[in-house]
Amino acid sequence: MYSALNLSPSPILRPPSSRKAVSNYRRKRLLFYCNSSSGNPMGSGSREPKLETSLSGPSNFKAPQPKPFRVRRDKLFDVLGASLAILLRLGTGATVSGYSASFVDKDEIPSDHYALEIAGFKVKETSKLGPRPEKPIEIYEYESCPFCRKVREIVAILDLDVLFYPCPRNGQNFRPKVAQMGGKQQFPYMVDPNTGVAMYESDEIIKYLVENYGDGHVPLSLSLGPLTTLTTGLAMIGRMGKGSTCTPSKLPPQPLEIWAYEPSPFCKIVREVLVELELPHLLHSCARGSPKRQELYQRVGHFQVPYLEDPNTGVQMFESAEIVEYLRATYAL
């Protein structure tokens, strides 16, 4: 079916090699699967994923206008439940490495730069980030796993772009692939295409990421052993297992892209649906202090998360509640 595309035999999506190419990622025709001569890319004993070749958004769909700090009434309890994690994890992942902030005169920051404005002053935010990977890290995981959350928190702190392959329970698309690659079905599982390293174990993944893309030091909130695991587990209580079980869906030919960061309750309810529908997505992490906040601001003239870009349908949109409805209408079977 795909032999005419002359794709490599690897079923894992390999993003472009340069940093500039990564920033233009949404414009590339990237597919997940090998050509037909390679057989079933998921390995023997597993079904071959059915890739949708033609997708369109819901009929008469119109992206909503962004409304900052607004919670739709029917999503109030969802947002409150997702917010519980912020308290239990003391905001871990809300700011990037080396974050600092100060109030400056509003004229000190150009009008075309993203900045919070409070009482006539603007908030100047800075950070100290480590080396940037040329290609996004790849992580196989699911939303309601406490060990996976630990890794997502360090992703936010290090301000990394990550290609997530959702592996909810009963998932048939990427969950079997983990056992094929690493020898066991355990999550999270990380693949770094920049170094060729692949590994299990959340603490080992965190250590690897800070050593290669940070300052080498694991943040205190992620280095407390059983206490860290306990609090990340308790942080899931407010959502009662959302983002853990597979919902039958169409598999898109290209990954969706989402601008988000781990502690945001609005981002969390969108991520839950992305995982449940097994939709691979490139996460542009943009916690406070991230340079990507300015990047998104320049691209669309506004910063607010989550922000979804779907290269399969051309839809680009803000507003978490409407994003959830769009994803289910477009991809759920």
TrEMBL record:
Q: Which Pfam families match?
A: GST_N_3
Region (Disordered) spans which residues?
A: 36-64
Q: Which GO terms describe its cellular component?
A: chloroplast
What parts of the sequence cross the membrane?
A: none
- Residues in GST N-terminal domain copies: 135-217, 254-333
Q: Which PANTHER family does the record cross-reference, listed alphabetically?
A: THIOREDOXIN FAMILY PROTEIN
Q: What is this protein called?
A: GST N-terminal domain-containing protein
UniProt organism field: Cuscuta campestris
Source organism phylogeny:
Eukaryota, Viridiplantae, Streptophyta, Embryophyta, Tracheophyta
